[in-house]
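Please review this one:
***
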Amino acid sequence: MHKHEEARTATLVLAAISFSHFLNDMLQSLLPALYPVLKSQYALDFGQVGLITLTYQATASLLQPAIGHFTDRRPQPYSLAVGMSFTLVGMLLISRANAFGPLLVAAALVGLGSAIFHPESSRVARLASGGRHGLAQSVFQVGGNAGSSFGPLLAAFIVVPRGQGSVAWFGAAAFLGVVILFNVGRWYGTHHAPAARQAAAPQRHALLSPAQVKLAIALLMLLMFSKFFYTSSLSNYYTFFLIHKFGVSVRNAQLLLFVYLGAAAVGTFIGGPLGDRFGRRPVIWWSIAGALPFTLLLPFANLFWTAVLSGVIGLVIASAFSAILVFAQELVPGRVGLISGLFFGLAFGMSGLGAALLGQLADRTSIEFVFRLCAFLPALGLLAGFLPTIEPGAPKR
């Protein structure tokens, strides 16, 4: 009975951390969803739009590995609530910012919130997994993806018609997240923080040499580059692409962005359980390289097929991240915080760098050229064929 109660509590904790991820990423996704409004209101160019994203993503990217490394040695259960508090302050500042400078400060605060939240919340998800690490990571990730997909809907129906100031209303969601994460932190601190500290000794996978582990991590980073540089074009500039090419309204562009992001949320949930069942490497290979035919077609499709293809791309390519993250955690066991921070940080960094560079490129060429160029990035998914096979009982590659 005691074990049953522990399992039930762990399931509730996993649900709570996933819902908190939903709230966190829903709030953060309001920023790019606001870009068309901010661009028009403050006469920003695409380069400045990209710099806002770069500020947010770079803050998260640079800090996450350091925070993860620190919490491997000294777990900080209540840092989860602190991270959400920074996001709350950032969102309130976005609602009141009246120039480009304050928008950059607000973006940095939101990035700091992400940097604190993600490494430790990923560790909590793994602790509450009951050994099904891929499934737990997918449940955790799908919360974030679902939250990201709701941002454009909220922007379309609330922020766009009511203006920038309405962003402040979402402070209630951030406060709810703080309360939930405080209770998750109390569970973690009571039951798992001492064990997590003992498990944090540097290790490597038993079947692989240090050189093989380093090569595998490098390949995973290249795959992350291909995935997140491409998805950055969709997350940040898809609405502009639709408005420019098809003349749709801002509201309808946000609804079509929701189609892509909603499909990505489904793909995220599928990826982890498939990795548990069939192995991480096949899922990584299929999810990135498998998107290539659809990304190549997207820039040349009509509006209907653009919507369909964006959904297929989101479904396929989003299934990679959970598998990549769990694969990396298994390559370097005992360093969940460092690996989670490194790969979440890389995801944010690639997204931010992609947003900035692609914004500059769009200013010099066109938004349609950017989409035609980025269509080739998933071809790097073929590198997944060089990853080692590390599932239990599998022969070493």
Notes: The chain has one domain: 2-386. Residues 229 and 354 are 5 Å apart (CA to CA). The longest helix spans residues 210-246.
